[in-house]
Amino acid sequence: MTTLRPYTATTGRILRQLRNDHRTVAMILVVPALLMTLLYFIYQDAPGPPHAPLTMFDRVGITMLGILPFIVMFLITAIAMQRERTSGTLERLLTTPLSKLDLLAGYGSAFSLAAAAQAAVACVVAFWLLGLTAAGSPGWVMLIAMVDAVCGVGLGLLASAFARTEFQAVQFMPVIVAPQIFLCGLLVPRDRLPGWLEAISNVMPLSYAVDALQQVSVHAEPTGAMWRDIAVVAGFAVVALGLAAATLRRRTP
C-alpha cells in the first residue's frame, strides 16, 4: 500500500483537477457526442452502397467512434502535462519521492477513466439516440473506443515530453495524429493504399483500432482479428507510456 500511495495520490489529484475544469470536462464528454450528431445530419440522406445492410452513417460513424476519442485525449493530455511543466508543478513534484513512473501512471489512470466516460457517452449517443447500427454489440465498440482513447493518452504524454510550451504540444497533433487519420482506412481501405503507405499504416495504432471497429461492424460475435487488433492498440499505449517515462525531464529548460 505504501508503494502505491504516490500513484493513487497523483491519480486523485488529476481527477480533482479535471472535475474542477468544466471546459475540459465538456471537451472530453460533450464534443465527441456533438461531432457524432453533426456526422449523423451530414449522412442522414446520403444513399448507402447498393445491397449493403449498413448506411453511410453506420459505416463512417463506427469508425469515428474510435478516431474522435483518440484525437481528443491526445490533445487534452499533451496540453495538461505541458501545463504542469511550464507552471513548475512538474519540477516540484519530481523533487519529492514521487517517481516518473508513478507520475505518468497516475496521469494515465486518471485520463483513462476520463476516456472510459467519454467512450460511454459517445457510444450511448451514437447507438441509442442517433440509431447507429452494427452487427456486433455496442459494448465491444465502447471497449475499443476506450482502449484507443487510452492510446491517445499515452501518445499525448509522450509528445508533451518533447514540447516546451502548450502551443508546441498542440503542434505535434498534425505530425502524430493527422497521418494516422489519413492512413487508418477511413478515407481509403488500407489494402488499396500504395504498398509503401500500407506499410506505414501497419505501424500506426489508429489503423488497428479502425480494423477492430470494422470487425464489430460486420460480425455479430467477437473475432480473433478483433482481439488481436485491440491487443496491438493496448500494446502501443503501454509502449508510449514507457517511452514518456524514459524521456520525462526532471527540470524545465
TrEMBL record:
Specify the ABC transmembrane type-2 domain's residue ranges: 23-251
* Presence of the UniProt keyword 4Fe-4S in the record: no
The record's section on InterPro entries has: ABC-2_transporter_component, ABC2_TM, ABC2_TM_bact-type, ABC_2_transport, ABC_transpt_DrrB/DrrC
Which PROSITE patterns does the protein's record reference? ABC_TM2
> Carries keyword Membrane?
yes
Q: Where in the cell is it found?
A: Cell membrane
**MF terms in GO:** ABC-type transporter activity
An example Gene Ontology CC term for this record = ATP-binding cassette (ABC) transporter complex
Protein family per UniProt: Belongs to the ABC-2 integral membrane protein family.
**One Pfam assignment:** ABC2_membrane
UniProt entry keywords in alphabetical sequence? Antibiotic resistance, Cell membrane, Membrane, Transmembrane, Transmembrane helix, Transport
GO biological process, alphabetically ordered: daunorubicin transport; doxorubicin transport; response to antibiotic
Its protein name is Transport permease protein
Q: Membrane topology type, per the record?
A: Multi-pass membrane protein
Query: Which positions, given as ranges, span the membrane?
Result: 24-42, 62-82, 103-128, 140-162, 169-188, 230-248
